[in-house]
Amino acid sequence: MYSPSPQKFVSIEFRIAYKTYRPGRIPAKLPRKEGTVFLSPVLLSTEHFVAIETKDDDVYYNGASALITFTESDGKIISKITKENSGKQLTMSVDGKIIFCGLILHQINTNQIWLSGGYSFNEIEALAGILSAYCLSLCP
């Protein structure tokens, strides 16, 4: 799992991972996977993130999960992204390093995204720590 530098994070970004190259897509390696994928432009970023909640009971993948909440106005963006990209991989990067990649199962019509997929509770807690620390760094 990614460990952030002590200074303020450069960015938190969500992108779609594609198997084929097209102009505007950047090559990248995914955690836990072989080969190269090509990332879309940024879909959601740092200023959209609000909170994260972790759970140690992902019944589908036998592991832990996290619920990431974005701003209320981002619900429409998330709905459009998930409708247009169902069946594709959604990546999350911190400081340019991909720390999560998960399959979009269906359209989401809220401002929240569940991250799951066989991650350990320690991995999910580390992710929560990264995002929570970033959130706190925005507070005056």
Polypeptide structure, described:
With 140 residues, this protein is an alpha+beta fold. It has one domain: Gyrase A, domain 2. The protein contains two helices and nine strands; from the N terminus they run ββββββαβββα. It has helices at residues 74-84, 121-138; strands at 12-18, 26-29, 36-39, 44-45, 49-58, 63-70, 89-94, 97-103, 112-119. The strands form two sheets. Strands 1, 2, 3, 4, 7 and 8 form a six-stranded antiparallel beta sheet that branches. A three-stranded antiparallel beta sheet has the order 5-6-9. A hairpin with a 6-residue loop joins β2 (26-29) and β3. The protein is globular and about 40 Å long. Mean pLDDT is 80; it is low at 1-7.
User: What is the CATH architecture descriptor?
Assistant: 2-Layer Sandwich
CATH T-level fold name = Gyrase A, domain 2
Helical content (DSSP H or I, runs of 4+)? 10-25%
Main sheet specs: 6 strands, antiparallel
> According to CATH, what is the class?
Alpha Beta
Uncertain runs are 1-7
Global geometry: globular
Number of H- or I-type helical stretches: 2
Give the class from helix and strand content and strand pairing.
alpha+beta
Share in β-strands: 35-45%
What is the arithmetic mean of pLDDT?
Answer: 80
Number of strands: 9
Radius of gyration: 14 Å
Distance, first to last CA: 28 Å
What is the total number of structural domains?
1
Order of helices and strands: EEEEEEHEEEH
Kindly summarize this structure in a few lines.
With 140 residues, the protein is an alpha+beta fold. It is built from two helices and nine strands.
